[in-house]
Amino acid sequence: MQTEITTYNNALPAEYAAISARLAEIISGELRDAESKIWHAHPVWFLDGNPIVGYSKQKPGLRLMFWSGADFGEDALDVIGAKFKDASIFYNSVEEIDETALKRWLRSAREIQWDYKNLIKRKGKLERLN
């Protein structure tokens, strides 16, 4: 995991720092070949340059977002928009993290990908990669 992600996590209020540290640990462990960095001010993991998963502190809690999560078929993940394929879950304590579900979602994130890397080049049109 990148030092900048650890710095981001440590700058959060204590309860969210614990959540983000645990999420980062699980994500990095499951997506060992992913590149991780701060992107648009938040930690994000990429496979072949395509954003897969990231998190950010928002009013309802710490939001874990999967860029292609709308197609995972998981009721626990909320799909907010219709234009993009993202889906999220919010955490307010580290105890809320279901590690089994998170690992399943990360496997789905590897298997189900929409091409966000080339979104601008394609003028906002998403294409399925996997």
Give a description of the structure.
The protein has three helices and five strands. The protein has 130 residues and is α+β, with helices and mostly antiparallel strands. It has one domain: Aspartate Aminotransferase, domain 1 (Alpha-Beta Complex), CATH 3.90.1150. A five-stranded antiparallel beta sheet has the order 1-2-3-4-5, covered by helices on one side. A hairpin with a 2-residue loop joins β1 and β2.
Give the total of domains: 1
Q: Shape from CA axes?
A: globular
Query: What is the H-and-E element order?
Result: HHEEEEEH
Strand order within the widest sheet?
Answer: 1-2-3-4-5
Compact description:
The chain has 130 residues and is α+β, with helices and mostly antiparallel strands.
What distinguishing features does this structure have?
130 residues; Aspartate Aminotransferase, domain 1; 3 helices; five-stranded antiparallel beta sheet; alpha+beta; globular; single chain; 24% strand; 5 strands
Blueprint of the fold:
Blueprint: H1 3-11, H2 14-30, E1 35-39, E2 42-47, E3 50-58, E4 61-66, E5 87-91, H3 99-111
Antiparallel strand pairs: 1-2, 2-3, 3-4, 4-5
Helix pairs in contact: 1-2
